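Q: My labmate handed me this sequence with no annotations at all. I'd like to see what the chain might look like in three dimensions before we decide whether it's worth expressing. Could you predict it?
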Amino acid sequence: MVSPESSSMSSDSTLAPLKTWHTLSADKALQILDTDSETGLTPQQVTRRQQQYGLNELKEAPGRSTLEILWDQFTNIMLVMLIAVAIVSAVIDFRKGNFPKDAVAIFSIVILNGMLGYFQESRAEQALAALKRMSSPRVRVMRDDKMLELAAKELVPGDIMFLEAGVQIPADGRLVEAQNLQVREAALTGEAEAVIKKPSMELAEDAPLGDRLNMVFMGTEVIQGRGQVVVTNTGMTTELGRIAEMIQGVESEPTPLQQRMTQLGNVLVSGSLALVALVVVGGVIRTGSFQSLEDLLEVSLSMAVAVVPEGLPAVVTVTLAIGTQRMVKRHALIRKLPAVETLGSVTTICSDKTGTLTQNKMVVQSIQTFDQVFQVTGEGYDPVGELIPITSEQNNTISSEYRILEPLLTACVLCNDAQLQQDDHKWMILGDPTEGALLSLAGKAGLFREIQNHKNPRVAEIPFSSERKRMSVICQLPDAEHSECVMFTKGSPELILAQCTSVLVGNQSVFLAEADRQRILEQNNEMAGKGLRVLGFATRSLTLLPLEGEEETAEQELVWLGLVGMLDAPRPEVREAVKLCKEAGIRPVMITGDHQLTAKVIAQDLGIAELESLSLTGQELQKLTQTELEQKVEQVSVYARVSPEHKLRIVQALQKNGEFVAMTGDGVNDAPALKQADIGIAMGITGTDVSKEASDMILLDDNFATIVAATEEGRVVYSNIRRFIKYILGSNIGEVLVIASSPLLGLGGVPLTPLQILWMNLVTDGLPALALAMEPAEPAVMQRPPYSPRESIFARGLGLYMIRIGIIFAILTIVLMLWAYGEAESSGNPERWKTMVFTTLCLAQMGHAIAVRSDTQLTIQMNPKTNPYLWGAVGLTTVLQLLLIYFPPFQSFFGTHFLNFTELSICLGFSALMFIWIEMEKLVYKWWINRR
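A: Here is what I predict for the chain of 932 residues:
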């Protein structure tokens, strides 16, 4: 809100936002903000600043209105063409004195498709609304030497506010005073561990957000302690406000499926209009006059209806919905339907570390006494595992008993305030995760807190503080007088070692020489170098309890017990998921707020990064231009200590390089990147409402392996969409060519009415197409690279297939049509040939649906049980088609005629040729592949 060069705000002049309050002392910040930590702002100052800065609220940019969303649905080029067709059809019917049933049917389809699109898009973006809910409603401040409680929105820069445990911080501020103040900043930084605040610090300008220990931020929560803060930024100038601006600044791009459907519509409509023009001009030239123009218009209307796959939007929507149901079974909840298919195009997955790649549970990995190293096995907080001795530096012999570790493990249990509980067969921690890991470790050796506390009751303690960086407890020895006690101390290895004069070797306490001290420090550095969080442990026997207020004097002449190294352990299933990712041509990338060393160790363990792989910190990234970052992103697999805008820049750089990016996140800080990513993935368990509302998909189990499973489903969905597009449009092209040929061949009338075409497009095409959406995954779906999200819908032979099959459809039907027309004319029932054409086209589609299940396998080679829905759809559609021919009410409505057994058999025979042709194509393809 102010530039550091400004000496004060006494004039309350307009001030530029300042990102460097953390570089100033508290006194300097108070001076710049022209306020007093004892008395606060005066009423006059408050009034002027409220006028200048406005309310302490996040401002929302207006979005599309409901009417705009609804209108957009009817600007789709295929629906526009159908509307025009319906209007012309209605005019022709009214001129003839007929009820415009074709126009009513077409308008109904237009409205249904428009509403379907509206309901998919009308979910308003709630990310900012969720962000606004994070602001605290009330806050205590000092104004005009009086303590007040007021609404958070009334805060202004320079206000002195007071924090205590449980308070949600309502604005950004510079700490003036703090007493053991701990703040959970997971919403902003993504890291769950509370941050201990230090008001006396002055930090470097490029200090990451998570390291600004002298600042507090809007939307974070006070866990422990008290603090006094001078407000530096309010509303949209806070860190939370910057995130809100980034969310609003991210524009939604159409998904690959939406782009492909638009391309498909443009091609179909353009082709249809060109063919209509050809038929009308050809018909006029053939007759030599405009007398048959109305008949030619009817033919054109039928062609226009035939070319638009009216059932396709509904089939696509249902297919995506089926995909969402499959994904829910695999613990992925889809918020936006198009995301189902989009997942199949992902080339890069940017994943948070904590809780997604790891268990979000601290697990002890290693124990180091003075002369022995133990590897610890087991997962999570379960007290099940082994303590395996792996080296013995003293005499090359390895003890397999836990006896040598008993003093250290006893210290883990007694110098501990957490509780390890089993709830419904699941072990859980109440308290600090680090202390929970120590209880789990001791439990693996058979030492449990309840028993040890009973044997060695605590009689005094010296609590942890950020200055001391250690905690000590004094416990009574079993079967001893009250005066005989033992002290256990845990905390920073360097600081505890400085208080030690002896070291435990085996079961003997020996003098701690300087060389031994250096050796222990080297052990600590080695463990820290592996990305472990290391705690040191020491003990001391006491004959007398220290006097009250003098407990710290007892933390001297300690006996060194050893080191315990722990890690937020990787999820066991993630290694296999990462391997599967790489086999599928997808690159996993870790983006975390954690320290670089820890991130690299986890990434290498999981296979995300190699030993020589590049990594970047937020500070290093900040110095890069966007062009430089775009050049580096393809080589970097690990990003550490990153801020919200860094995540956004990384996603944008990857996208600029042509990558299709899935991004995971759980905090408020992740929301802009989640919106920017092609697929935003929020955490269902640890995720904030803001991240969930900004996402396309929610992981119900917060597990990276679920993303890979969802990607597989996305690929299956895209394959099935292509499959039924081949099926639907192959027949539509055939229909158009048959209708266009009728006037050119001099046959009387239109072979298919718009109503019959709608029946084919919605029922005959629609039901089997829905069944094709249920096709299971192909065997090698995750053993190939992702298809380019920018590939055309007609790519990889689909366009050629549609044209080829459409022409075969047309040839077969035209041959039948010519024969049927001649037969009908000679039999005295000249309209019956149209019903034969209608029936042949419909039944041929059934054979097409059965054959299109696979591009290479013959139908006889495929297991019919893998998709029973298809056989049901084919059977039902065939029965419905026969009802149109033989059930009088349907005959009358759809304008069909009774077919005798011979005529129906001929229709069936011609229809079967379509199935035979496609199966023959597969045989030819196999023969050609084998020859190559």
